[in-house]
């Protein structure tokens, strides 16, 4: 039975929803524009080979770096982790431009490494903030803001590309001004991260403070990470995390392989525009107080099973047809509607998978530091899946097989998600998720003093032993 909590007055610019909006704006400027570029197929360029290799590097670096940045973010605070994460997306976009126009590869490959490192900070920090700052009743909307605005960026990128390439009724690369406009948007994301309230400044409607806990040593941060990773609920969700970003490579390849430049831009616009709608709708549903939290988890799960399953079954049928006919479709072509509908359906489903995934993990803990670690695991494992997916594209695996892998991975992930949804989601999370974190340092003026003999008080920190 859920607790009834007294509502407290909250200053709007210290609220969790305002913090979520600022995080969402960083998602708009950085991963959103990254998605806009790639959503137009091959990073907007004429050849997908180098782009697939570059994206494999991005997600490979992100997969490894996420595990290490989780401890760093806990020590420098999620706000400053987010600031770092917004600073280095533009070299990747510049590398795409130079490769497309001049055939140079080094800047794109270098930019991919830099982006992978920056993205690790951005994704770990943003996930920690959205799940660790937010009240239980607002976690769905917080994640919806992020993935909704990320999709909005993709749609705006598609609109810009459509306006600048509307006469290109052939396959090929996008115009130079498209790259310039998108790089300008990427370069301003740090302003929103800088405006983010700190954990100490956040005001929740339930009156509970946000505690930022630093482990006594960096090594003990990894003990917490290991503790969380070995929990049954986390292990059960690993296949779902792998699926969550595996699909990107194939979907972007699909758009590049079968459509003209302007049709790709239109497809990309529709793909991300419907994603904005689906993210906001699912986020609202997951926070709806009419149903209990376990009921909302079950409803969200069933919605995903139906929509995502339909998308990949239809996708497999369409891919077999396209493999036989090998079309190059413009919006004026016969048969364009089927491919555009399929691509748009994928765009509708993908943000719902992300919102549900993070919301489900947010049901497992309300602790800021633990959500940092959970987010790091999600990012690391999801990006590992993306890395292999882009390798699959880079070695030119047949599109029929590439599509079938997505359908297979989604099917394999369902039993684990079902077990978590039907057995592990409670009405409220009463305590922290991980046990045995060891010696921790609480950076909060709101931590209640303890009578323990092991507690040492300072002007800013309280050090206390967490029960083993």
TrEMBL record:
Membrane topology recorded in Swiss-Prot or TrEMBL: Multi-pass membrane protein
Protein name as it appears in the record: Major facilitator superfamily (MFS) profile domain-containing protein
Cited Pfam families: UNC-93
The portions of this protein that span the membrane are 53-73, 80-97, 109-133, 145-166, 178-199, 228-246, 266-287, 299-318, 338-360, 372-393, 399-422
The answer to whether the entry has keyword DNA-binding is: no
Q: List keywords of the entry alphabetically.
A: Membrane, Transmembrane, Transmembrane helix
Q: Does the keyword Chloroplast apply?
A: no
- Top-down, what is the taxonomic lineage of the species of origin? Eukaryota, Fungi, Dikarya, Ascomycota, Pezizomycotina
Instruction: Provide the protein's localization.
Output: Membrane
Its GO CC terms?
A: membrane
């Amino acid at each position: 039975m859920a607790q009834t909590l007294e509502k407290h007055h909250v200053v709007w610019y210290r609220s969790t929803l305002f913090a979520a909006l600022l995080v969402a704006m960083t998602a708009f400027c950085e991963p959103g524009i990254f998605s806009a570029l790639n959503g137009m197929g091959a990073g907007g360029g004429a050849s997908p080979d180098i782009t697939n290799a570059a994206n494999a590097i991005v997600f490979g670096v992100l997969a490894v770096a996420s595990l290490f940045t989780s401890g760093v973010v806990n020590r420098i605070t999620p706000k400053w982790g987010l600031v770092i994460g917004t600073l280095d997306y533009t070299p990747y976009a510049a590398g795409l431009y130079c490769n497309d126009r001049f055939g140079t590869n080094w800047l794109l490959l270098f930019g991919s490494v830099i982006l992978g490192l920056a993205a690790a900070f951005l994704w770990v920090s943003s996930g920690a903030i959205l799940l660790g700052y937010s009240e239980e009743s607002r976690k769905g909307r917080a994640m919806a803001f992020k993935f909704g605005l990320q999709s909005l960026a993709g749609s705006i990128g598609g609109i810009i590309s459509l306006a600048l390439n509307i006469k290109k009724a052939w396959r090929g690369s996008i115009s130079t001004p498209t790259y310039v406009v998108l790089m300008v948007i990427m370069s301003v994301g740090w302003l929103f991260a800088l405006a983010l309230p700190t954990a100490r400044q956040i005001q929740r409607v339930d009156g509970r403070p946000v505690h930022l806990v630093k482990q006594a040593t960096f090594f003990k941060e990894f003990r917490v990470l290991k503790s969380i990773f070995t929990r049954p609920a986390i292990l059960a969700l690993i296949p779902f995390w792998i699926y969550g970003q595996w699909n990107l490579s194939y979907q972007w390849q699909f758009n590049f392989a079968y459509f003209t430049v302007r049709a790709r831009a239109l497809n990309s616009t529709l793909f991300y525009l419907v994603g904005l709608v689906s993210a906001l709708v699912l986020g609202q549903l997951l926070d709806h107080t009419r149903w209990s939290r376990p009921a909302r988890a079950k409803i969200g799960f069933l919605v995903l099973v139906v929509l995502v399953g339909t998308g990949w079954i239809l996708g497999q049928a369409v891919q077999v047809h396209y493999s036989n006919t090998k079309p190059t479709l413009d919006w004026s072509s016969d048969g364009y509607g089927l491919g555009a509908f399929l691509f748009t359906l994928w765009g509708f489903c993908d943000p719902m998978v992300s919102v549900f995934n993070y919301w489900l993990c947010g049901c497992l803990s309300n602790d800021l530091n633990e959500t940092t670690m959970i987010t790091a695991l999600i990012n690391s494992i999801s990006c590992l899946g993306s890395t292999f997916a882009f390798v699959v594209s880079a070695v030119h695996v047949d599109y029929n097989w590439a599509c079938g892998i997505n359908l297979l991975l989604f099917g394999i992930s369902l039993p684990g998600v079902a077990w978590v949804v039907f057995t592990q989601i409670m009405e409220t999370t009463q305590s922290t998720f991980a046990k045995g974190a060891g010696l921790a340092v609480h950076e909060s003026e709101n931590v209640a003093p303890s009578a323990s003999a092991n507690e040492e008080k300072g002007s800013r920190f309280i050090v206390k032993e967490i029960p083993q």
